[in-house]
Amino acid sequence: MQSPKHTLAIARFFRQHKRLPSYREMLTLTGFKSTNAVYRLVGRLVELGFLSKDKNSKFAPGPHLLGVSVLGTVEAGWPSPAEEELVDTLTLDDWLIHNREATFMLKVSGDSMIEAGIRPGDMLLVERGRTPRSGDIIVAEVDKHWTLKYYERHGGRVVLMPANKKYKPILPQEELNIAAVVTAVIRKYHS
Amino acid sequence: MQSPKHTLAIARFFRQHKRLPSYREMLTLTGFKSTNAVYRLVGRLVELGFLSKDKNSKFAPGPHLLGVSVLGTVEAGWPSPAEEELVDTLTLDDWLIHNREATFMLKVSGDSMIEAGIRPGDMLLVERGRTPRSGDIIVAEVDKHWTLKYYERHGGRVVLMPANKKYKPILPQEELNIAAVVTAVIRKYHS
DNA sequence: TTTGACAGTGAACATTCGTTCACATATACT
DNA sequence: AGTATATGTGAACGAATGTTCACTGTCAAA
């Protein structure tokens, strides 16, 4: 029997149950009749990077099971199969989220940041409680209205800059309520 | 003892080991001295949605451990604590990736799609093997050069449209090599 | 004070776990 | 042919698993 079919079955189980199957469960997944068969299969998958094992030999998903392969740039084009070995693998969650308890998603409405490449319908990853640095994009409440703006300090003065010529910079007087700092923008196609 | 501290310890273990700790491991994580204490703790966490249990009472991460809370829109502003109950929770990986084996990431270089909100340095999630529909953004090789373009069919004719007035539409003659269809754009701030 | 609910301890249970053994079968190479 | 080498079977091992029980201490309401 070949590995890829079994690998897919295990991956499907992992996606569905959010955990890895035990050897006994892999028996039914793979069609093997002996746990020793899947034991050796797992050994191969560990070497391939699909699975990994802890100290106590409990296993966890490996890089290839969790991550997405990262290629170069668009200009560099599609790598040939030979150099695909060089590609890195990245977990979206670990890459984008640092403080999970303080991270939220919200949808962009309005076009005040369109020149910064943030368009209505985009999804924002924002982090609460972080103190913004000049140049950050923030979600703030100004005059009882919630917007997306660049946060900039000029001297000791805070200026909220839109990225749209239709709107004007805001010099908040007193009631500046910064809710969160934008850490990422995600635009999803194909619904 | 309060739950949140223990919850964080378990969450940290999960982020680090990519799997959930056993009851015995939770003993050292929480400082409890009896597995019964963590057994009842886990019961509470299951009700809260941080953990979940399988049929065989093996447990898996719950929605609150994997996902990110989704709020409304920027205009709607920050929800009051009262209505935070209504928010949904979303897993980035499950949301963005449908066919993991065929999905790759690559970095945008060049400004040919800047008017579509895709800027140099942005990261693309692309899917290989998918047949593009008119209006999709694709990664294609034209004249031995890799670019990002809108894929459009006018009549029976394929046109590759840039989203930048500096560039002209491309009417591929023969050698049109479509590598992948863009399924998402991710821009990360704060490095 | 008495009572009752709650939270933690410590020990025990049957079950399941990962691992390893010896043996059978198949495939490829000389 | 014969002979390695790999692959799957079946049964068994100790160790670790989730769960449960009886008991102790604590804190607040009656």
Name the average pLDDT of chain A.
Answer: 91
Q: What's the helical proportion of residues of chain A?
A: 10-25%
Secondary-structure element order of chain A, as H and E? HHHEEHEEHEEEEEE
Compute the gyration radius of chain A: what is it? 24 Å
| Major sheet description of chain A | 6 strands, antiparallel
Task: List unreliable stretches of 5+ residues of chain A.
Answer: none
| Oligomerization status of the protein chains | homodimer
Secondary-structure-based class of chain A equals alpha+beta
Distance between the termini of chain A: 38 Å
Could you say what the CATH architecture of the largest domain in chain A is?
Orthogonal Bundle
DSSP strand tally of chain A: 10
How many helices of chain A? The count is 5
Query: Could you say what the CATH topology of the largest domain in chain A is called?
Result: Arc Repressor Mutant, subunit A
CATH class of the largest domain in chain A: Mainly Alpha
Strand percent estimate of chain A: 25-35%
- How many discrete domains of chain A? 2
Strand order of the largest sheet of chain A: 5-6-10-7-8-9
Name the features.
32% strand, elongated, homodimer, two-stranded antiparallel sheet, 24% helix, DNA-binding, alpha+beta, 5 helices, 191 residues
